[in-house]
Amino acid sequence: MKFGAIIIGDEILSGKRQDKHLAKAIALLGMRGLEISWAQYLGDDPELITATLRRTLAGSDTVFSFGGIGATPDDHTRRCAAQAAGVALRLHPAAEAEIRGRFKDDPKGVTPQRLAMGEFPEGAAIIPNPYNRIPGFSLRDHHFLPGFPEMAWPMLEWVLDNRYAHVSAERAAEAAIIVREAGESQLIELMNECLRAFPGLKVFSLPRVTPERYIELGVRGNEAQVTAGIAMLQAGVSGLGFPWTAALS
Predict the structure, then answer these.
(1) What per-residue confidence (pLDDT) applies to 249?
(2) CATH number of the domain at 173-246, please?
(3) Which listed residue, of 41, 67, 221, 238, carries a Cα 20 to 30 Å from 244's Cα?
(4) pTM of the full structure
C-alpha cells in the first residue's frame, strides 16, 4: 500500500507560511512502520485541485489531503473532491450533528456558513475533530483534513489507527558510507552495478560541499539486500582507490 500527501494553500506556495504537515505525516506514518511515497503542493486553484484529485481517486494510493475544507471563499477542496468523484456535495448528517453540537451555546448560533463546513461528497464518512468538533471527511481511501496542525494531526492519527491499523509494512533498512576524494561521475558505474545485482534496492548519492567535501553513498530497501548491497559498495569504492568511512546513523 502506498501513501501520498497533498498540501493545499496559496500561503504555503507564497512563503507566508511554512508547511509542517509533510514532516509530521512522515513521522506519524513512520511510527507505524509506514512511509509516504509521494507528496504534492497545490495552490488554491479549483481546476488544479479537481484534476489532481480526479487522477489520485482513479488510483490505488491512500491519500491524505491537508487544507481547504473550511467555509471561506478560498476553501475549494470539498467541492473539488465532489467534482473529481462525480458526486454531489451534500450536508452530511453526522457532520451536521457535530457542528450543531459545537455551536449550540454560541450566541451566533448555527449559521449556514458553519453548516457548509459539513457539506461533503456523497458517500463520504466523517473524520472526528477533537479540537473543535468540525469534522473532516474520508472519500474512499482519500482523507481530507484541515490546514490547522492542531486539528489535522490528531485527525490523521485517528485515520491511521481506525482505518489502517491492520496494514503492516516492513520498514525499509538503510546503510551508507562517506566517500572522500571522489566525484559522483566516478561512482556512477559502481552504483549501476549495485542496482543490477540488487534490483530491489534504491541506491543514493548525496554530495556535500560544506563544511567538508564528500559524498554520502548508500542503499535503501530490504534489510538482507541492504547488508549485501552496502558491502558491494564498500568493496567497489576501495577498489576504485577512494577512502571511505561508515556514515553516522
Answers:
(1) 65
(2) 3.30.70.1130
(3) 221
(4) 0.83
Cβ atoms of 87 and 53 closer than 8 Å: no
Q: What is the band of 117 on the pLDDT scale with cuts at 50, 70, 90? A: very high
Tens digits of residue pLDDT in 167-193: 866 667 899 999 999 999 999 999 999
Tell me the C-alpha distance between 85 and 36, whole Å.
23
Domain 3-163 has CATH 3.40.980.10: yes
Domains of the chain, residue spans: 3-163, 173-246
Amino acid at residue number 117: M
